């Protein structure tokens, strides 16, 4: 099967001497929903910039649906839709014109470009704003405009660089639903995000990039299976002065009415509640301290940090 | 517009239409000022001062300066359109819309240069219409007039493109027009014949490319010139070749637009 994206030995060293990418390999299968994660400055945006032809690579090869980005660049670029991190449209142009122009750059005749623009402005609930100058849109609308613009030429691979940064919860969830629907319809999606719950709930595959190198790559399920249990935060009915001792669990009293409990994988939480109940501790509510992907992510970064120091 | 054809042609038309819409949308900044400036030149230099100056090369002074004033407007507006539009495209980062698209560099260059030429020609027509209110216009050699105006606007649109590529701030897009273009235009024989200059300055003027362009258009309109028109056209074409090659190389390498 031809991968949607195949990256081999991709390197980027900026003129300042900073090495942003130290030779990464990526393979994204067609139809996948893929998360590219990493802390700030890890090299995610540089990698996306090279794939989008916005950054000149120092070495390596990029293929999009088997089209080499250097040799068969027309076909490769035509297959990609990019939603960048920063707003990068002409703020003085009307919303509809931005989409029609973008379609024109991809060689789509104006009549069809108008139809495509209408289709995506309606889908992303921007049709009423079609004659509005882009600068007058709200932050969430600008984000949706960038998604509509990226889709106007019907790309098979959609790359989104932090598409939900700064948008409210309702719009974020609407965008998640839109992207999931788009993925079900066959578009391969690569997503970078700082909201790890977003990656966990949307993506089926993942790569973690750190200091310009891929430190983990694989299926989301396999990666999450590596978590060493759950970290729960319990709100208590009554105040405690010392942390309760429960066999098999590590408890830490962070406040008189707040108890954090490390639950090992497979230990379950029934024995925990039974034990607390036996000690006369009444639990009012419970929440996960952090999601599972966040635990794995931080663990990977810590491991990688140790490897680098060694 | 029936926007069909080869994808490159559609891309080119899209860039050109966008550029034309841009300068037409802000016509009080782009089209109106040259009309007012030209009218002032005619009133002050043509009527008030020109009436005290005798004939130049057999023509009244006001008739003599018309070709130079038209070309001055074409040059400055072809240049200004591309330098401001392409720099603002860089500044707002929507140059990325073009860079990610399957468009070759030469189409992007052709689109922006054509936008500059379009504004240069529109302004040239406006200035010509204003001129017609003050003088009786004549054309001695139509093909030469069209060739000079078109080629000169292409040349200066390309120069504006290169300026925009290297510009880092909005100040950088006004440095060349203020300190290089304007002096060269004014010293290029718009308002005088080089024969009026002392021998040393006549020789020095030959190093000013504007002299060749202004005189080529003057020959096309009035049939008189300080310079032979063939060599003037050849110089313009050579410069177009040089600046075109430089612009394409800069775009291909991503100078000023890619990391």
Please give the structural blueprint.
The complex is a heterodimer of chains A (310) and B (259).
Chain A: E1 5-13, E2 19-28, E3 33-37, H1 44-51, E4 59-64, E5 67-68, H2 73-78, E6 80-83, H3 95-105, H4 110-123, H5 139-151, E7 157-161, H6 169-184, E8 188-192, H7 196-202, E9 205-210, E10 213-219, H8 220-224, E11 230-236, E12 250-255, E13 258-263, H9 270-278, E14 283-288, H10 292-309
Parallel strand pairs in A: 3-8, 3-9, 6-7, 7-8
Antiparallel strand pairs in A: 1-2, 1-4, 4-5, 9-10, 11-13, 11-14, 12-13
Helix pairs in contact in A: 3-4, 3-5, 4-5
Chain B: H1 7-25, H2 27-30, H3 32-49, H4 61-91, H5 95-99, H6 105-132, H7 142-166, H8 172-186, H9 199-205, H10 209-222, H11 229-253
Helix pairs in contact in B: 1-6, 3-4, 3-6, 4-6, 4-7, 4-8, 4-10, 6-7, 7-10, 7-11, 10-11
Please tell me about this protein's structure.
The complex is a heterodimer of chains A (310) and B (259). Chain A contains ten helices and 14 strands. Chain A has 310 residues and is of the alpha/beta class. Chain A folds into two domains: 5-224, P-loop containing nucleotide triphosphate hydrolases (Rossmann fold, 3-Layer(aba) Sandwich); 230-292, Alpha-Beta Plaits (2-Layer Sandwich), CATH 3.30.70.1560. In chain A, the strands form three sheets. Chain A has a six-stranded mixed sheet, with helices on both faces. Chain A has a four-stranded antiparallel sheet with strand order 2-1-4-5. A four-stranded antiparallel sheet of chain A has the order 12-13-11-14, with helices on one face. In chain A, helix 3 packs across helix 4 (110-123), helix 3 (95-105) packs parallel to helix 5 and helix 4 (110-123) crosses helix 5. The longest helix of chain A has 18 residues, at 292-309. The model of chain A has no long low-confidence stretch (mean pLDDT 89). Chain B has one domain (7-50, 59-253). Chain B is mostly helical and 259 residues long. The relative contact order of chain B is 0.14.
């Amino acid at each position: 099967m031809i991968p949607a994206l195949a990256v081999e030995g991709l390197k980027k060293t900026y003129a300042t001497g900073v090495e942003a990418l130290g030779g990464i390999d990526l393979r994204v299968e067609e139809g996948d929903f893929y998360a590219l994660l990493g802390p700030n400055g890890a090299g995610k945006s540089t990698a996306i910039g090279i794939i989008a032809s916005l950054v000149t690579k120092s070495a390596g090869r990029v293929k999009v649906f088997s089209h080499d980005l250097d040799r068969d660049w027309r076909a490769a670029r035509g297959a990609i839709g990019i939603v960048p991190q920063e707003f990068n449209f002409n703020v003085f142009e009307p919303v509809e014109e931005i989409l029609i122009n973008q379609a024109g750059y991809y060689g789509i005749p104006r009549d069809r470009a108008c139809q495509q623009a209408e289709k995506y402005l309606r889908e992303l609930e921007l049709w009423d704003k079609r004659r509005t100058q882009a600068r007058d849109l709200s932050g969430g609308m600008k984000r949706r405009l960038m998604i509509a613009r990226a889709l106007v030429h019907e790309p098979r691979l959609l790359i989104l660089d932090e598409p939900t940064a700064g948008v409210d919860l309702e719009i974020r969830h609407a965008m998640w639903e839109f992207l999931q629907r788009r993925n079900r319809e066959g578009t391969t999606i690569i997503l970078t995000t700082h909201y790890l719950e977003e990656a966990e709930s949307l993506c089926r595959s993942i790569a973690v990039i750190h200091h310009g190198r891929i430190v983990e790559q694989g299926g989301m399920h396999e990666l999450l299976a590596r978590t060493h249990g759950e970290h729960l935060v319990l709100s208590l009915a009554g105040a405690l002065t010392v942390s309760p001792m429960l066999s098999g669990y590590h408890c830490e009293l962070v406040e008189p009415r707040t108890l954090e409990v490390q639950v090992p994988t497979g230990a379950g939480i029934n024995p925990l509640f039974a034990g607390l109940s036996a000690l006369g501790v009444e639990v009012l509510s419970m929440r996960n301290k952090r999601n599972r992907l966040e635990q794995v992510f931080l663990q990977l970064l810590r491991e990688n940090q140790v490897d680098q120091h060694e | 517009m029936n926007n069909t054809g080869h994808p490159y042609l559609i891309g080119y038309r899209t860039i050109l239409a966008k550029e034309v819409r841009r300068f037409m949308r802000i016509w009080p900044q782009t089209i109106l000022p040259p009309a007012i400036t030209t009218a002032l030149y005619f009133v002050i230099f043509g009527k008030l001062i020109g009436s005290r100056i005798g004939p130049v090369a057999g023509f009244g002074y006001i008739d003599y300066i018309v070709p130079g004033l038209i070309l001055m407007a074409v040059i400055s507006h072809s240049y200004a359109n591309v330098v401001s539009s392409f720099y603002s495209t860089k500044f707002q980062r929507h140059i990325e819309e073009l860079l990610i698209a399957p468009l070759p560099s030469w189409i992007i260059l052709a689109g922006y240069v054509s936008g500059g030429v379009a504004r240069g020609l529109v302004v040239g027509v406006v200035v010509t219409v204003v001129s017609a209110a003050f003088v009786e216009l004549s054309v001695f050699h139509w093909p030469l007039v069209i060739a000079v105006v078109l080629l000169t606007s292409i040349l200066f649109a390309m120069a504006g493109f290169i300026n925009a590529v290297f510009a880092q701030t909005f100040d950088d897009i006004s440095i060349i027009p203020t300190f290089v273009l304007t002096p060269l235009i004014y010293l290029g024989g718009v308002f005088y014949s080089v024969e009026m200059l002392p021998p040393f300055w006549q020789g020095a003027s030959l190093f000013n490319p504007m002299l060749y362009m202004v005189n080529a258009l003057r020959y096309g309109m009035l049939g008189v010139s300080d310079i032979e028109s063939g060599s003037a056209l050849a110089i313009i074409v050579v410069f177009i070749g040089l600046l075109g090659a430089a612009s394409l190389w800069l775009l291909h390498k991503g100078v000023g637009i890619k990391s």
